[in-house]
Amino acid sequence: MKFSTYVIISILICINISCKSTIHSNQEKVKKPYTLSDIKQKAYVLHSIDSNKDSFCDFILVDGVPHDISNIDSVLSRYNQKSIEYIQFIKNTFSHKPCENITVIRTEKQSEKEKKKELLEIKNLLNNKVSNIAVRPRICNSCPLITINDKPIYDPHEQKKIINEIDINTIQSIYYLPRALRKDLWGSLGVNGIVQIKLNKLIVKLPQRH
Question: Which of 52, 65, 88, 161 has a CA that sits 20 to 30 A from residue 79's CA?
Answer without folding.
Answer: 52
